[in-house]
Design a protein that fits this description.
CATH superfamily of the largest domain: Bira Bifunctional Protein, Domain 2
Bound molecules: 4-amino-1,4-dioxobutan-2-aminium adenosine-5'-monophosphate
Number of helices: 15
Helix content: 25-40%
Oligomer: single chain
Mean pLDDT: 95
Number of strands: 15
Length: 458
């Protein structure tokens, strides 16, 4: 269909003004006076609408009647003109209704609650709110790829169906083709007769494959969906989330922290540069002060604190926490929020966590108690990055697996990386959907992607 995008029309106004143009889109608002009708049309290419001016005498009455309904899709032709009030508008010379939109179209009002919009995921893309979310989401994804491409990383595709549980937290979704009824007596027999001849699941992290790739390619990253059967019904958890996982050879914990900070600042700056209208929208309607917050984040150093010192800070805070603060216990959301929101008021890397609460693959520190792990906590949200230096000494890695009761079966190839020319290496995982929350101020992770998958909801 020959037509011009509304974004192109607005961005290159001087080129088009005075010309006859064809535009397509959906009616966002419509009002009329005696002789003239006004329609705001949006085609999804940008947040702004184009105003159509319709001389009622010149357009077929039936077509115009249909065109006045919010949600109707139109193809129009008209003269592109500068308007003293609206910047630019189109004086319509021909109007074709592509698809009518009956009165039960749910998006009649200008503003709806996000809770209501969550009940119509197939239609919410037609609101300014979600148009902005998806524009930022798209830009952020492109910025991620640009960052790694510019810095010499290879983009690696790790498998989604896998036999190994990277995090060892027992949160894997199973993949099976067996029907409900089975005649198998034991689990082993059941899995042996399944599609892959063994137990299979959806990946909880691409890290193990990422480490293998980095052992030849040097610097890699993965960016794909990750699945966790976590029963965490919170505004920050999805059962299917998008995960960015760089893995860097010849890098120790300090190196990967530096990379993570540089990366976060770069992708925020890119969104600020390329989505100004959307950030303006979020700044006005979703999180007041959002743009200032982002500006401060990209212009200042992130804080850094050891887990042990964090425990001291929390103990001395004078706060009454729901979960007790003691060395050896995981940091709960309330603790993370205190550290990032109140104590530092900016992003903070917590480092050197107790080995017992972290995964088997993390580099064991000389103190015998902690591992070279880091989480990045941000104000208003908590953890967005989890990463570490990896244990590259075979004996120590095997000991950590044994301590957790993990079999070596299924990890043979991973262990080979420690056998054949092992090197210090580090990596991290950034939850892409959480990053969207942070950049937009959106409060619920369910509002950062098209179809959120959460416990009890598909
Ligand atoms: O801290 P996590 O579990 O770390 C890993 O998976 C490592 N293997 C990463 C690595 O070193 N390559 O998860 C990393 C990040 C978290 O900080 C969080 O942002 C996000 O992934 N995340 C989730 N996001 C949405 N819903 C969930 N259920 C999430 N679980 C983790």
């Amino acid at each position: 269909m020959k037509h011009v995008d509304i974004k192109k029309l607005l961005d290159n106004a001087t080129e088009y003004v005075g010309k006859n143009v064809t535009v397509c889109g959906w009616v966002r608002t419509a009002r009329d006076s005696k002789a003239v009708a006004f329609i705001e049309l949006n085609d999804g290419t940008c947040l702004k609408n184009i105003q159509l001016i319709i001389d009622k005498d010149k357009i077929d009455a039936e077509a115009l009647k249909n065109a006045m309904a919010v949600g109707t899709s139109l193809k129009i032709e008209g003269d592109y003109i500068a308007s003293p009030k609206n910047g630019y508008e189109v004086q319509v010379t021909d109007l074709v209704v592509l698809g009518t939109c009956p009165a039960d179209f749910p998006l009649q009002k200008k503003r709806h609650t996000v809770e209501f919009l969550r009940t119509i995921p197939h239609l919410r893309v037609r609101t300014r709110y979600f148009e902005s979310v998806f524009a930022v989401r798209s830009e952020l994804a492109q910025a991620v790829h640009r960052y790694f491409a510019q810095n010499g990383y290879k983009y690696v595709h790790a498998p989604i169906i896998t036999g190994s549980d990277c995090e060892g937290a027992g949160e894997m979704f199973r993949v099976t083709t067996h029907d409900f009824e089975t005649e198998f007596k034991t689990a082993d027999e059941y899995y042996a007769n399944d599609f892959f001849g063994k137990k299979a699941g959806l990946t909880v992290s691409a890290q193990l494959e990422g480490e293998i790739a980095a052992m030849g390619l040097g610097k890699i990253y993965t960016f794909g969906p990750t699945f966790r059967a976590e029963h965490s019904n919170t505004p920050r958890h999805l059962a299917e989330f998008w995960h960015i996982e760089p893995e860097v050879s010849f890098a120790e914990i300090d190196d990967i922290i530096e990379i993570a900070e540089d990366f976060i600042k770069y992708i925020i700056k890119e969104v600020m540069a390329n989505c100004p209208d959307e950030l303006e929208f979020f700044n006005q309607w979703v999180e007041k002060g959002l743009i200032d917050k982002l500006q401060t984040v990209v212009s200042n150093d992130f804080a850094r604190l050891s887990y042990t010192d964090a425990i001291e800070v929390l103990k001395k805070s004078g706060k009454e926490f729901k979960y007790p603060v003691e060395w050896g216990a995981g940091l709960q959301t309330e603790h993370e929020k205190y550290l990032a929101d109140e104590y530092f008021g900016k992003p903070v890397f917590i480092v050197d966590y107790p080995a017992d609460i972290k995964s088997f693959y993390m580099k064991q520190n000389a103190d015998g108690k902690t591992v070279a792990a880091t989480d990045l906590l941000v104000p208003g949200l908590g953890e967005i990055i989890g990463g570490s230096e990896r244990e590259w000494d075979m004996e120590k890695l095997l000991a950590a697996m044994a301590k957790r009761g993990m079999p070596t079966e299924g990890y043979e190839e991973y262990l080979d990386t420690r056998k054949f020319g092992s090197v210090p290496h580090s990596g991290f995982g950034l939850g892409f959907d959480r990053m969207i929350m942070y950049i937009t101020g959106v409060q619920n992770i369910r509002d950062t992607l098209m179809y959120p998958r959460t416990v009890g909801s598909l």
